Amino acid sequence: xxxxxxxxxxxxxxxxxxxxTAGVYPDTGGKIVIDGKTVLNFSSNDYLDLSHHRHxxxxxxxALDQYGIGSTASRLVTGTLPxxxxxxxxxxxxxxxxxxxIFGTGYMANAGTIPALAGRDDLIFADxxxxxxxxxxxKLSGAKLVRFTHNDASALEQRLEQYAGAAGRKLIITExxxxxxxxxxxxxxxxxxxxxxxxxxxxxxxxxxGTFGPNGAGLIREYGIEKSVTVSMGTIxxxxxxxxxxxxxxxxxxxxxxxSSRAFIYTTAPPPAVIGAALGAMDVLEASPNLGNILxxxxxxxxxxxxxxxLDTMQSESQIIPIVIGDNETALAISQRLRKEGIIAAAIRxxxxxxxxxxxxxxxxxxxxxxxxxxxxxxxxxxxxx
Length: 386
Description:
This protein is α/β, with parallel strands linked by helices. Helices cover 43% and strands 16% of the residues. The chain folds into 2 domains: 19-47 and 290-385, Aspartate Aminotransferase, domain 1 (Alpha-Beta Complex), CATH 3.90.1150; 54-287, Aspartate Aminotransferase, domain 2.
């Protein structure tokens, strides 16, 4: 009786081609074997093909053997281990900031940081397409949320000028590489506006950490705008192939978060094996600093093949390449056809993307060789056009 309200919601989602289920796959990474056949997985965020890298796995095992399965407490009780501080120091140095702080997930990093920077008397200026975790964090903060047109610095400037006389703190939030469109924010222009209007700036670098910048340090580092970006957020769960999130920042912001971020304070510290794997991934990045450049060159080649065939890849400039289909059911049908042809290309539908823009979201990884990309491009072009 108490659950009768649920079924109509599920029925409506199914009718509109929006019902979701969690598929089960036998392995991870850009290439997986299913029923004895190698399948190209274009829906994995294992951009640098590190999820099965021997050194990364060895570092994880070493941490497991030394410290056991779990951290067994929150960071402020007895959960902080030497490897937590080692990883934070390395992340800070890599990102070009004085300090860093690890969170359990990227979602928690955003949810735990934004409410600490802005509250009920403050303003948050957000790109219209920022990640759901950032929007949820804005709501949690109680601050007034002001949206600006996606990747439009002039629109942001108009919004900042509109609220120039407002009291309280101002925080601008954006992503560097957007997770569904694969396009890149005009970070240098946004950073200049933050300086001009005395606003804090937080950039979600989940999809540019490991894939852009020197040693994979991200676009903030590539552009040299660390001093203008108050907080650089990143994840360990994409190019670094593990699990967790982090922010790089000043020592004072780190202290503030340690004392006020509920997502940091009231949760168990990330387990040792996860931290060990992240340290191993950073070792690989330092030993092979050109991995991101190789990934972007391959992505450009693949995107050009799709674009030249007339497919709509939007404004993608990264390893994330959307192919806009529009209709939800059509996107699902194309995804299912490709799956039968040995290609995993997830159909992304509202509310993850705007209504009417259902798409295939392709993630290029270093597991995909040039011949894989050429073969996949032909099959994807045929599936979309026919």
